[in-house]
User: Which sequence fits this backbone?
């Protein structure tokens, strides 16, 4: 039986108070299984980014329960949430968020430093991750010496370095041209084929078409879950 890695149970998220309350998520139920490749879609304000923030433990539900690897997260302390993010989640964003004065290798090493991994093991794993994303010849290059697509590959290597339960990608091709977008999406396909669970937020049908499941949000509600 396929393992559930994340579960949203009647999750709502509200901002503001009294008559100014905005319901960003409204009673959402969603299950993410090991090995899923899920695209989360919706217009601006649909709730898709809020859903990703909760899945990624960047925010907490106002109502309902969110479980990551079976652990409810709403009562965890900020430090416990940070540790959970570092050990169980990997993040890729539209802007690459690389340290400009650090090499590709040093950028990829960073999550392992926080996780307390042995220095020799850190370097070995970082080089393997950069090789996996096709950058074994670029380990000593800094971000300004890399193309946009190469920078995103470094960010992906950094995101997978701690073997996350879920790789979360928020508009990961938004800053890339069409050819580089295809290259990065091909890489996501390969990572998924290797067994990595991926949740990808996008507003582009062409990007979502690579996923095996598509969750569509509207007005804070999950209105459709399509399984290919």
Assistant:
């Amino acid at each position: 039986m396929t393992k559930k890695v994340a579960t949203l149970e009647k999750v709502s998220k509200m901002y503001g108070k009294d008559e100014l309350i905005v319901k960003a998520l409204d009673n959402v139920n969603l299950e993410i299984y090991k090995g899923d490749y899920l695209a989360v879609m919706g217009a601006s304000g649909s709730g898709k980014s809020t859903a990703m923030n909760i899945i990624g433990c960047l925010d907490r539900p106002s109502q309902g329960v969110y479980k990551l690897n079976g652990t409810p997260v709403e009562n965890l302390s900020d430090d416990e949430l940070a540790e959970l993010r570092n050990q169980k989640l990997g993040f890729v964003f539209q802007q690459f968020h690389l340290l400009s004065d650090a090499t590709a290798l040093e950028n990829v090493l960073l999550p392992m430093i926080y996780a307390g991994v042995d220095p020799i093991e850190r370097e070995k794993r970082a080089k393997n991750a950069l090789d996996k994303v096709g950058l074994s010849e670029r380990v000593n290059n800094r971000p300004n010496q890399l193309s946009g697509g190469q920078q995103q590959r470094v960010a992906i290597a950094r995101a997978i370095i701690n073997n996350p339960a879920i790789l979360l990608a928020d508009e990961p091709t938004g800053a890339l041209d069409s050819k580089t977008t295809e290259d990065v999406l091909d890489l996501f396909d390969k990572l998924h084929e290797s067994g990595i669970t991926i949740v990808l937020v996008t507003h582009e049908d062409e990007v979502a078409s690579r996923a095996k499941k598509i969750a569509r949000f509207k007005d804070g509600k999950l209105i459709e879950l399509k399984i290919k």
